[in-house]
Backbone:
């Protein structure tokens, strides 16, 4: 029982056009944790060299690769050459997108913890909630399927409830973002400087994003 | 190989903030302290470190020939005419961009490290291949930025990339500061910049017309007897790099200094 469960664990790379796997991999590895797992390379064309880099990163995190999936034959060939069991995905098109959304329900309640400042150009993405200890600098992005919590200054772009969760909130020790997004709503950050030393929380009320002093624990609702 | 050699990358992300000028002046300032220094031009596409140092007409071989092993390293090194402790390794022609690999830069840097105490690498603007090649060779970095939103944003991106490459320590130089504008809050304050970038400030340089004059002449400011604010700033940065504790200049005081002195002078004369 245990075995068949763990065999289902699958680490999926982002689509080639959406993000670079090098950027999202640390977060994904963090989420899936050590143990055996399958990798889905999707539409990435990976040579042996890249594939070795990818697998080394995973091995360092204690992930044992049981099988490599890919939509491109080139990647399959590289994976075969490295001696991994492989499987060629059926043609992946935009229509197969719902498959992406089929996430393990457990991962929705999972918390991604990240320590360190997100600098301009960085993007931290989590399927569930995300807790960042550090700042989000201007030009950086933090996004989550659930709540976004920043133990630091939020000065970049934050997106909570990116799969449509309207209950999601964004909390930061200092909330002065360029832009806030919750579910489908988008708001520009406040023009005036916020009070120092007062944690603030953004939540969706109707169609507008409101910012209030943070009072409740966002995980309680 | 000298184990104490410091290989420092001078980069910024954005162009035109003063990487090359800092490299040239720092090279001279360090050389004046009796330290064997080499400046390596990693900006193969748009090289002009040789121009700033006034060494353009002395170049015979470049890094390209060294890598191709068609000349020895010491044949390619151009010794500065007035500062014998400083040498330049010129960039080859822009076609090098097509084949140069990070390993090649590492090879050059380790060759230079055998002969010098300081290797300063002048990094190209941007974060593409040229930058990646230059980073591969460096152990430490100095990030140059100006008090402008765009320059700070680019610097932030570069610092993030340097962090992932394991370059440490990274220090910050704030260039082209205008004390008056800073006092009137028309320009980002030094605190605002360090607040975002979260790096120790190695130096603060004032906007100075003398820099343009010296660039056009091919004589770095630190070479002349100039006592201009920028010349002092460069010298101080070199001393801080050496571990000396030199207090940072306060732009507010620097702006007021002369006027305050004049005012004092007038007062004493009248009364």
Residues:
């Amino acid at each position: 029982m245990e075995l068949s469960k763990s065999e289902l664990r699958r680490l999926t790379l982002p689509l080639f056009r959406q993000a670079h796997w090098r950027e999202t991999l640390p977060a994904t590895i963090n989420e899936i944790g050590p143990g055996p797992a399958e990798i889905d390379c999707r539409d990435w064309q990976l040579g042996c060299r890249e594939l070795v880099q990818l697998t080394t990163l995973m091995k360092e995190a204690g992930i044992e690769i049981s099988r490599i999936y890919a939509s491109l034959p080139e990647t399959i060939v590289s994976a075969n050459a490295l001696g991994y069991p492989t499987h060629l995905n059926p043609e992946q098109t935009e229509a197969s997108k719902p498959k992406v959304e089929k996430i393990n329900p457990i991962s929705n309640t999972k918390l991604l913890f990240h320590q360190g400042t997100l600098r301009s150009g960085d993007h931290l993405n989590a399927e569930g909630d995300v807790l960042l200890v550090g700042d989000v600098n201007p030009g950086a992005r933090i996004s989550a399927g659930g709540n976004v919590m920043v133990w630091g200054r939020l000065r970049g772009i934050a997106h909570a409830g990116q799969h449509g969760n309207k209950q999601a909130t964004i909390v930061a020790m200092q909330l002065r973002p360029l832009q806030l997004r919750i579910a489908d709503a988008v708001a520009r950050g406040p023009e005036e400087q916020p009070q120092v030393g007062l944690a603030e929380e953004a939540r969706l009320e109707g169609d507008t994003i409101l910012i209030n002093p943070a009072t409740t624990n966002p995980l309680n609702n | 190989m000298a184990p104490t050699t410091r290989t420092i990358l001078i980069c910024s992300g954005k162009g035109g903030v003063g990487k090359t000028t800092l490299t040239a002046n720092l090279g001279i300032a360090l050389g004046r302290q009796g330290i064997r220094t080499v400046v390596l031009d990693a900006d193969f596409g748009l090289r002009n470190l040789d121009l700033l140092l006034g060494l353009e007409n002395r170049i015979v071989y470049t890094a390209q020939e060294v890598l191709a092993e068609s000349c020895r390293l010491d044949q390619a090194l151009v010794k500065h005419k007035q500062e014998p402790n400083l040498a330049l390794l010129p960039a080859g022609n822009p076609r090098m961009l097509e084949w140069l690999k990070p390993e090649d830069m590492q090879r050059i840097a380790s060759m230079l490290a055998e002969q010098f105490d300081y290797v300063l690498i002048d990094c190209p603007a941007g974060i593409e291949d040229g930058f990646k090649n230059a980073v591969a060779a460096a152990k430490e970095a100095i990030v140059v930025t100006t008090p402008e939103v765009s320059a700070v944003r680019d610097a932030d991106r570069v610092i993030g990339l340097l962090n992932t490459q394991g370059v440490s320590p990274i220090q910050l130089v704030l260039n082209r500061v205008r004390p008056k504008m800073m006092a009137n809050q028309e320009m980002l304050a030094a605190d605002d910049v360090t607040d975002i970038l979260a790096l120790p400030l190695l130096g603060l340089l004032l906007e100075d017309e003398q820099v343009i004059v010296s660039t056009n002449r091919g004589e770095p400011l630190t070479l002349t007897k100039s006592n201009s604010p920028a010349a002092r700033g460069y010298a101080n940065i070199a001393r801080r790099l050496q571990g000396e504790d030199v207090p940072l200049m306060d732009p507010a005081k620097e702006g007021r200094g002369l006027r305050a002195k004049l005012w004092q002078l007038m007062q004493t004369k009248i009364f």
